[in-house]
Amino acid sequence: MKKFLKITGIVLAVIAVAWGVLALWPRSLCYTAENPLRTDRNYPILIAHGGGNKEFPDNTLEAFYNAYSVDPRVMMETDVSITKDGVVILSHDTTLDRKTNVTGAIADWNYSDLMDQKVDFGYTNPTKKGQLNGDRVKFTTEDGREVTPLDVEYPDGVQPRDSEVFLATTLEELMVCFPEARINVEIKQEGELGLTCLNAVLELVEKHDAWDRVVLASFHEELYDEFQRLQQAGEVPENFMCSPAYDTATEFYILQLLCLDLFFDDRMCVFQLPMEEYGFDLATQGLVDAAHKHNMAVHYWTINDPEEMRHLIDIGADGIMTDYPHRLQEVYDAWLAEQE
């Protein structure tokens, strides 16, 4: 028995030493270029979710102008789908039923028809399985006000596109109107249609030389796999930016808990996470520090509570995604005043 215990102790000691060495071993860089999604300030990047979709209709150009009025350095989060005539437009859904005054899949509509008919993206309709399920409801703010494009605080020289209607917005419009802004682009369509949309997005990023400010995301594993293939094949520049789907984020979370993230080597630049998932606390300084060792940023979504915003500042998060840009800026202003 003594001999068994001695051998067991030696084995456990060797495992502990090996584990300690692995925990201290330098991590490989998952993003080898300078990472523009890591904060360069002492507080997180303000990220406008859909432009700040509780202040103005989400994924409209007007919402993004509103967010820009809060912070000219705002990072813009948007969702995209491709139309029948091959135009990438902003939309959280792959159908038009919930957010507009028409119905149908975006892939079945021409962008030219959306514009000719002045389809209004200023709604928050009830839907079931992506289809209209009740009376249409115009977008209202938290205090019940309806808004129009005229209510936006535009930069000097910028005029509203329309006085009443929130027109369809293309990804190219967003990139052109905000030529310095960092933009998170989540591709909503899946399968072959999602890959077609991805190729169209890549053409826009190449056309506008926006590799260092546009990051691609998707919850569809086949699209994340394509992100990885493109990099491995050398079909995109070194500073191509992407974030992972669920499986990869889960893998990193487990590895960093075990201090074994040494073995994580996916090519990516940012984790986009909720604060909690299935009862697991993801908003920890340990996770943020582990990601930073790989030169990856950590952004949290969708954060609308001021106390949660303060917690994310404290743990060193790189970005906070919110529906309320003005509210998050107020938290930053109060926090900065406390530091003085």
General description of the model:
With 340 residues, the chain is α/β, with parallel strands linked by helices. It has a single domain, classed as TIM Barrel (Alpha-Beta Barrel), CATH 3.20.20. It is 35% helix and 14% strand. It has 10 helices and 13 strands. It has helices at 2-24, 61-70, 111-116, 171-177, 191-207, 221-232, 246-257, 285-293, 306-314, 325-339, and strands spanning 45-49, 75-82, 88-90, 127-128, 131-132, 183-187, 214-217, 241-242, 270-273, 276-277, 280-281, 297-300, 319-322. Strands 1, 2, 3, 6, 7, 8, 9, 12 and 13 form a 9-stranded mixed β-sheet that branches. A hairpin with a 5-residue loop joins strand 2 (75-82) and strand 3 (88-90). The longest helix has 23 residues, at 2-24. The chain is globular, with a radius of gyration of 22 Å. The N and C termini lie far apart (64 Å). The relative contact order is 0.16.
